[in-house]
Amino acid sequence: MSELAQIFTLPQQRSKIPVRKLLAFYTKHRKLLTRTAYILILYSIFNAGSSVPSNKRKGSSNTKNAHSKRPSPLTLKRIRSFWSRSPTISFFKQVLTKDRKSALRIAQYLTWQLGLLGVKAAITLNIASLDGKLVSLIVGKKFKQFFKCLVIWFLIGIPASLTNSLIRKVQGMLAQSFRTGATNTIMDNYLPNSGNSSIYQLTNKMSAGPKDEISAGRPNKVSSPNQMVTVTIDQLADTVSKLPVQLIDPILDILLTANRFSKVSEYATESSLLLGLIASVSTLVLKVFTPNFAKLTSVHNALENKFHTYHTQLINHREEIALARGHRRELDLLDTSYFELERFQRLELRKMAIYNFAMGFIFKYGLGAFGLMMCAAPIFSTAYFSGFVVDERVVSRLAADFFANKRLLLSASDSLGRLIYSKKAVQNIIEYCTSLYEFDASLKEINMLSTNCCDPDGDHLIEGPNVSYGEEITFDHVPVITPTGNILVKDLTFSIKPGQSLLVIGPNGCGKSSLFRILGGLWEVRSPGHVIVPSSRKQVFYLPQSSYFTYGTLREQILYPDSMAEYRENVEFARKRGNTVVKDDLYLMKLLKLIHLEHLLANSDSLSSDDEDEADGFQFGELAGSKNSRSSSLQDENSRLRDGNSHFPPSGLDIVAKWPDILSTGEQQRLAMARLYYHQPKFAVLDECTSAISPDLEKECYRIATKSFGITVLSVCHRTSLWKFHDYILKFQKGPQDKYATALFTRFDPEKRLRRHKELLQIKADLKKNQELVARLEFLKRTQSRPNIRRKMLYIDE
Ligand SMILES: Nc1ncnc2c1ncn2[C@@H]1O[C@H](COP(=O)(O)OP(=O)(O)OP(=O)(O)O)[C@@H](O)[C@H]1O
C-alpha cells in the first residue's frame, strides 16, 4: 500500500463517513482531478494576466471608457473579438505582412528565443538535480563522487552562461527587427512615395482638434508624431522582445517543476490541485492591488511628451526667447509640465509599490511556504511511518530530494509571480500598438483622401478632379479656403504662361501664401474651382521666406531635395552625353560665387587665386547653358575636376554644419537662391524669399533667375524695385468690413505703374503738406480773431 493510501486509511477506522467509497472515487478520478488543477492554475493566471481592452470604441468617450475600465475576465468570445478587431492584432498583422524581410527575421529570432529558453529550462532542471545530489553526497560523506559532481556542476556553468548571453543577444536582435518592421510600416504613410504631405495635413488636423486630452484621461494619439516614430516604436519593440522571455521562461519552469513532481512525489496530484486552488485565490487577491497598467503608461507617455515638446520649442526658438528675455515665462511652462509629470510619477510609484508588495508577499512567500511544505511532506511522512527510525541511505536520498524540490518549487512560485507580472508588459504592448495603429490610421485616412491629389509615383505636382495639366499655371474661379473652413478669397482667377512672371501683392493675412499652398497640393482645389498646372512637380519650385536646410554638407543644401546619388547620376549622365553644362562641384561653386557666398567654401582662396579672372569673367549664360556656348576655360576646369586635378578641392562643398545656426537670414536666403539656380525649374514661387537680402543683391538675384536662367517667377514681394521683373499682377484687396478678400488680375506695365506709383506718392505727400499748410493758416486766423487776446500785431495780413 502506498504512503498516500496509508494516510487515507488512518481516519477511516474511527469515522462513520464512507471514506472508503470516497477514496475509491478519488483514486479512480485522480487524473481528471490533476487536469482540473492545471486548468484552474492556467485560468487564474490568464485571468490575472488578461488585459484585452474593450474593442467597442467608437468615439472619444468610448475610448476613454475603454481605458478607465478594468479589463474583464478572459472569455472565448472576447478572445475572438480581440483577434478580429483589436488594433493591437491589426498593427501586428500590418508589421508582419508589409515588411516581409523583417517578418522573416522576427520569426527566425522568435524560434531561436524559444529554443534557447527550452535549453535554459533543461539546464535549470539539471542544476537543481545536481544541487540535490551534492547535498546527498555531503550527507553521505562520499568525497570522490562529490568532487566529480562538483566538476560537472562547474562545467554546466559554461552552457548556462552562454545560453543566458545568447538569450539577451537574440532578444536585442528581435527588438531591432521588430522596430525596423514597425518603422517601415509607419513610414509608408508618414512620408509616402506619392509625395503627399501627410505630416503637414496631420499637424493641421491636430491644431484644429482638441488641444489637451491628458486631463480627460486619454492623451491625443497624434499629438506628437515624432514621439510616435522615435520613442513609442522603440518602447514597443523592446517590450515585444522581452515578452517571450517573460511568458515562456516562467511557464517552462512551472511545467518542468510539475513534471518532476509527478515523477518523484507520491503527492503530485493532490499538490497540483492544492497549488491550483491557492494560485486562483492568490490571483484574485492580487487583482485588488493591480493598477490599470495601460492607463498608467498612456498618461505617463503623454506627460513626458508634453515636457519634451516644451524643451524642443525652447531649443528651436532659443534666440528669440533670449532676446525677449522670456526665460521666466519658459521656466514657468517647463516647471508646470515637469511638476505634472513628477506628480503623476509619484502616484505611479505608490501604485506600483502596493502592487509589488502584494506580488512579492503572495507569490514569493505565500506560494513559497506552500512549496516548502510540499518538499517537507515526504520527509515527515517517511519519518512518521518508520517510527522516526530512518536508514542513513534514505536520509541522504530524502535530503537530495528536498534540496532539488525546494529549489525548483521556490523558482516555480517565483515564476508564477513573474508570469502574472507579465500582465504589465502585455498591457503596455496593447497601449503602444493602439497608439501606433491610430496614428497610422490617421495618416492612412489623409493619404486616402489625397489619393485624388497625388499619383503613386509622386511625379505630379497635384492631382484630383479639379486639376488638369498643361504648360501654364491657371486658377479658374478657385475659392481659397483654409483647412479650418475660413474663406479667404471666394473666387481666384488668373493665368500665366512660361515667360510671364506674376507679382502677387496684398495686405497681411489676405491669402497670398495660401494661393501657393493650393498650388503645392497642401490645400485641396475646392469646387467649383479648376486649376491647370505643369504635370511634373520638378517644373515648379517653391522658395519661402525661411528655407529649410538639412543637417549635411554644403553641397546637399544646394541639391535639396535631390540626393547625392541623383546628383552623381546627373553628372555622369551629362558627361556621357557631352552636355555643354555639367552641374558638378565646380558648377555649384560658381553658383555660390554668383550669390556672394564663396566664403562658405573651406578653401575659398581657390576661387579667387588662379581662377579669379575666370570667375570674374564668368557669364551667367555659361551656367544656364541656354544661349551661349560654354567657354573653353570652363571645359578645362570641368575636365580637371573629372581627372581629380581640380583647383577646387571637393572639401569646400563637403563642410558639414548646422546651416541655419551658422548662417544669417540673408545668407540663408542667398543659399536658397543658389538652390533655385541649380534646379532651374520652369516656374518658381518666391514667397518673400529675398526679404532679408540687401536691395542691390536682391535685384541681382531676381535678374539672374528671370533673365539668365529664364525662370518664370510668381513672387510675393514688397519692394517696388522688383516690380520690373514681372509682367502680370495679382492684387488682393480687403476692406476693414470685408469678410474675405477679392483678387484682381491684370497685365502689368512695371515702368508705367512705377511712374504712377511715384506720382501717387508725390501727390499724397504734397496733399499732406498742403493740408498742413491749410491747418496752419486756420490756426493763425483763429489766433488773430480771439477776442480776449491783447490786441497786438502777430502778423501782417495783407
Ligand atoms: N494651416 C492653416 N490652417 C488654418 N488657417 C490657416 C492656415 N495657414 C494659414 N491660415 C490662415 O490663412 C490666412 C491667410 O494666410 P496667408 O499665409 O495666406 O497670408 P498672407 O497673405 O501670405 O500674409 P503675409 O503677407 O502676412 O504673409 C491667415 O489668417 C492664416 O491665419
Automatic annotation (TrEMBL):
InterPro entries linked: AAA+_ATPase (IPR003593), ABC1_TM_dom (IPR011527), ABC_transporter-like_ATP-bd (IPR003439), ABC_transporter_sub-D (IPR050835), P-loop_NTPase (IPR027417)
PROSITE patterns linked to this entry: ABC_TRANSPORTER_2
Keyword Thylakoid appears in the UniProt entry: no
Region of interest (Disordered), ranges: 52-72, 620-647
BP-aspect Gene Ontology terms: fatty acid beta-oxidation; long-chain fatty acid import into peroxisome; peroxisome organization; very long-chain fatty acid catabolic process
Polar residues composition-biased segments: 52-65, 626-636
CC terms in the record's Gene Ontology section: peroxisomal membrane
Family matches, as Gene3D superfamilies: P-loop containing nucleotide triphosphate hydrolases
Membrane-traversing stretches: 32-49, 109-130, 150-167, 353-380
Keywords: ATP-binding, Membrane, Nucleotide-binding, Transmembrane, Transmembrane helix, Transport
Any Pfam family hit: ABC_membrane_2
Family indicated by similarity: Belongs to the ABC transporter superfamily. ABCD family. Peroxisomal fatty acyl CoA transporter (TC 3.A.1.203) subfamily.
Record's protein name: DEBR0S2_03818g1_1
Protein source organism: Dekkera bruxellensis (Brettanomyces custersii)
